């Protein structure tokens, strides 16, 4: 397959992984789908963070891999074959232990894949371990106990434990030190997708944007001075590593990139149904540390593409007077914004001294892209924590729904303010 590719070309990463995976044989079948390819969660939870490690090996990142790195990627996967086969065997044992214990909550792949990888490295193949069934039962019980206490208090205790603080601070430092250099220039395709996503969403085009690493490429600009700040994602000149943190409040959350690891996870604990779909505390915290060092500070390429689409869809709304339309989605958001009576009122407040509107609210109303991108990031971040996927048909509902939410929030804040001050609501 690879020998026929011209020098300097690139090969789809998914095709390379599938090709190497097929050579691992039946031992990894529990980690595979019916067609013999690795499950999406196998790639997300095992291959990317524990085997290929694209954060430390940027040559393996993105949707395409340079032909000069093809053999190396295959070698890394094949060398991990015995550990992956042992992981698959442990996974089978843990599922049996789970059934015997009567555990039904949570997705077994989310809960046990990474634990099984640890067991494989600690004990090897469970068929050669005399007390493997006891280890599996104990692991299931540990995971269940951890998930039974997925609360803010336990998150705080975990992140303030002196031993954990040292370990997590080291992980955070290494994750940011190993950030890959900015990739190639952004690829085309965002505008074409925005032109059709509201009426005829193209699943193939959506998947192509993710496979090509378009969202990651578009994030390169965020490291330039003031770019992320102008988007409302940080108050700093450039994004910087977050603090670990030991407290959080929904009333005082800073912009997304300035939030501590504690603050980033805090919002996910607001509902029981959300906690039921999330990983255990240690896995969540480590995952959030790596997420903070990723493009757009999001872990999934579809989420990064959605941020780039949201940036372009909301671009130019701030111009207000005869704004240029860059896409069908942009025009639809422009039209929704222009229909808001309160927006017209605030834009007419030429004299700041005569207005009863605080400067921060007035700024958010006039320069709406900042609050829009902040809320879009929070929505995508929450979807990642809950393991939710995004299809092409979901994109416009997401982009438009976030914009509608921002406008409703601004309208309500302005109404409360005017009612409090005795003005017309």
Automatic annotation (TrEMBL):
Stretches for region Disordered:
214-252
Biased composition of type Basic and acidic residues is found at 221-239
Q: Which domain of life is it from?
A: Bacteria
Q: What is this protein called?
A: Uncharacterized protein
Source organism of this protein record: Glycomyces tritici
